[in-house]
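Private note to self, pasted from the team thread so I don't lose it. Backbone tokens:
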């Protein structure tokens, strides 16, 4: 009898243990399911984060963080004032992908996007304060395929003005052109243009301009007036008697913000749209040569007939060089495109 009771007790105990184990397993499954659900819900409620880098040889006006339309967070690491190199190096870095975004003058990119050299054609418009319907969007639409062919995407293009130079020499006759030792941007077509007029030309990246000015070897320079002002070069130029703003109208001043194409394509539309907006909003008011001259009491000079004749000859030299390098068809297509806005 005791034996039967013991066997019965063991059977009951085994049943209880098995029931407990089963309950424990079910409880574990429920807990695991709840944790997975919580993790999934948390993942769905937390915004996605995207990080990009942007570099320039001048100042940058981008927020460190921006909330996109879809709620995702765009984090921006900015490297201004040439801390990562000059414009040419930064553009190459953007093309290779070591830098996400480059902001700077479009004219330095002719080695990367050869068609940018077309902006070096003098007198694309009759005056630097041109009255035209040409917009940045028009230029973006025309240039975007050429950028993309080189692994870049245009986020924004900004038309500033037509070119002028700061000089310590008033250009009064053709022989004065041979007295110029001009700082030109890193653009071989600018060098060809000034050299064809008899000037001595030195290509100087913007972030090295201060050092070169201290050497007192140049007596004229190209460059955006706002960039010159913001970099603190104005007092140096005043001390060296750069007293003249000469409206040479020798190139269209255009700034660009470009991004590595592969990285750009990897971003969702809302983040792409945010980058385009931030790029468009990042431009400061660009002082025209006249505004700069009036602010600092400089003399504004419009080329006389003799100087203008020389500038016109320089224009034809550049057009011929571009036809040789890019082909007559592409040059004529660009000029026809520009002429539709005159």
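Design output:
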């Amino acid at each position: 009898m005791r034996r039967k009771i013991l066997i019965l007790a063991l059977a009951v105990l085994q049943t209880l243990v098995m029931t407990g184990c089963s309950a424990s397993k079910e409880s574990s499954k429920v807990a695991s399911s709840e944790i997975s659900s919580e993790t999934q819900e948390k993942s769905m409620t937390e915004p996605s984060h995207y990080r990009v880098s942007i570099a320039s040889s001048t100042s940058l006006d981008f927020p460190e963080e921006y909330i996109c339309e879809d709620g995702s967070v765009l984090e921006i690491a900015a490297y201004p004032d040439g801390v990562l190199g000059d414009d040419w190096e930064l553009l190459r870095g953007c093309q290779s992908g070591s830098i996400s975004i480059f902001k700077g003058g479009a004219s330095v990119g002719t080695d990367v996007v050869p068609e940018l050299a077309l902006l070096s054609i003098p007198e694309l418009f009759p005056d630097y304060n041109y009255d035209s319907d040409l917009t940045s969007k028009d230029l973006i639409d025309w240039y975007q395929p050429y950028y993309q062919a080189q692994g870049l995407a245009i986020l924004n293009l900004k038309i500033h003005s037509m070119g002028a130079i700061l000089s310590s020499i008033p250009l009064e006759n053709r022989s004065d052109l041979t007295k110029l030792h001009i700082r030109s941007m890193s653009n071989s077509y600018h060098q060809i243009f000034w050299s064809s007029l008899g000037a001595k030309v030195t290509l100087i990246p913007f972030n090295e301009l201060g050092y070169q000015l201290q050497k007192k070897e140049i007596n004229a320079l190209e460059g955006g007036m706002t960039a010159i002002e913001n970099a603190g070069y104005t007092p140096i130029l005043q001390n060296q008697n750069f007293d003249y703003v000469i409206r040479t109208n020798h190139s269209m001043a255009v700034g660009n913000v470009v991004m590595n194409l592969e990285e750009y394509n990897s971003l969702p539309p809302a983040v792409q749209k945010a980058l385009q907006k931030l790029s468009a909003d990042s431009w400061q008011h660009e002082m025209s040569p006249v505004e700069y001259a009036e602010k600092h009491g400089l003399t504004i000079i419009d080329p006389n007939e003799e100087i203008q004749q020389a500038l016109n000859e320089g224009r034809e030299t550049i057009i011929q060089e571009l036809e040789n390098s890019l082909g007559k068809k592409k040059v004529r297509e660009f000029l026809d495109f520009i002429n539709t806005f005159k």
